[in-house]
């Protein structure tokens, strides 16, 4: 399964292949342009997290991982090898939907080893100015996210979703990244969004959008949920907990991951029966055990 495109921030051309992996592998990136150098999609490899979530190991970078990792969680993929011939994943249409389509076309294979979940046992709350993120004990994975952007099409938006019964595919995966035409020059001067275009992000003008229509009236906050799900994939296992976030962003998402993993009294690893897994799955019964492509 292969696709090609450009990196959102680097503008660099890239080809990506997703390959099956044995149980217990997790998600591992291979830089095939650097002799297949491996970078595991885990918290200790998190590098820069300002406008995207990047991984780094021994000075080797993999950038803008969140949309693909989000698709893996949404589809119940536990194990995969992701080959890249450049430093940044392709942005494609700015959502997780093209990745979802590619994975579904390839098909999923149930693996014998039971899927492990990270079940939250105690609440964790983090604040930074007017930003907030928290996780609370729950028997399922749910997200409530709020944003507040000073734009007439956005303003205050809140979206809540229970990540089960295919809700990720219907409600989250199609939501695209977005940016402001007014901020474009400053961001490009910072070395960012060099690959951005009207084809891969929602372009906001002062009082509207250049490339409508929106896929959802609240597509902006839904994309933040998409990013959050991808960033929390760095926990290494699907989560059982209730996430509440307000204007959090990538840095706080990954800070929450680090905070959770640092204190083993906050969580436990659990397995669920097939019936329970099917009920909790954000995709379908095809992904009720540990799954690969």
Can you give keywords for this protein?
293 residues, alpha+beta, seven-stranded mixed beta sheet, five-stranded mixed beta sheet, 7 helices, 23% helix
Secondary-structure element string: EEEEEEHEHEEEEEEHEHEHEHEHE
Overall radius of gyration: 18 Å
User: Which word captures the global form?
Assistant: globular
What structural class results from the helix and strand content? Answer: alpha+beta
The percent of residues in helical segments reads 10-25%
The number of helical segments is: 7
Largest sheet: 7 strands, mixed
Intertermini distance: 9 Å
Taking pLDDT < 50 over at least 5 consecutive residues as the criterion, the unreliable ranges are 283-289
Q: What oligomeric state is this?
A: single chain
Count the beta strands: 18
Q: Strand share of the residues?
A: 25-35%
Average pLDDT = 92
Summarize the structure in words.
Strands 9, 10, 11, 12, 13, 16 and 17 form a 7-stranded mixed β-sheet that branches. The chain has a 5-stranded mixed β-sheet with strand order 1-2-7-3-4, with no helix packed on it. A two-stranded antiparallel sheet has the order 5-6. The chain is of the alpha+beta class and 293 residues long. The protein is 23% helix and 30% strand. The protein is globular.
């Amino acid at each position: 399964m292969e696709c090609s495109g450009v990196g959102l921030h680097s503008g660099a051309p890239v080809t990506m292949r997703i390959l099956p992996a044995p149980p217990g592998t997790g998600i591992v990136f291979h830089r095939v342009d650097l002799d297949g150098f491996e970078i595991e999609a885990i918290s200790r490899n998190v590098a820069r997290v300002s406008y995207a979530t990047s991984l780094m190991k021994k000075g080797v970078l993999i950038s803008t991982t969140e949309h693909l990792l989000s698709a893996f969680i949404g589809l119940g993929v536990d194990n995969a090898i992701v080959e890249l011939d450049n430093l940044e994943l392709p942005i494609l249409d700015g959502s997780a939907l093209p990745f979802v389509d590619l994975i579904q076309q390839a098909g999923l294979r149930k693996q014998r080893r039971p899927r492990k979940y990270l079940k939250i046992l105690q609440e964790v709350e983090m604040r930074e100015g007017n930003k907030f993120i928290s996780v609370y004990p729950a028997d399922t994975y749910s997200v409530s996210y709020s944003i507040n952007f000073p734009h007439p099409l956005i303003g205050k938006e809140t979206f809540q979703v229970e990540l089960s019964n295919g809700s990720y595919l219907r409600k989250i995966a199609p939501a695209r990244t977005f940016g402001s035409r007014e901020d474009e020059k400053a961001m490009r001067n910072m070395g960012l969004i060099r690959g951005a275009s009207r084809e891969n992000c929602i372009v906001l003008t002062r009082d509207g959008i250049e490339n409508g229509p929106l896929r959802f009236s609240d597509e902006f906050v839904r994309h933040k949920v998409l990013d959050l799900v991808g960033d929390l994939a760095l926990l290494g296992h699907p989560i059982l907990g209730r996430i509440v976030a307000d204007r959090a962003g990538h840095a706080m998402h990954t800070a929450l991951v680090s905070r959770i993993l640092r204190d083993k009294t906050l969580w436990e690893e659990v397995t669920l029966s097939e019936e329970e897994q099917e009920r909790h799955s954000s995709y379908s019964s095809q992904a009720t055990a540990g799954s690969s492509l």
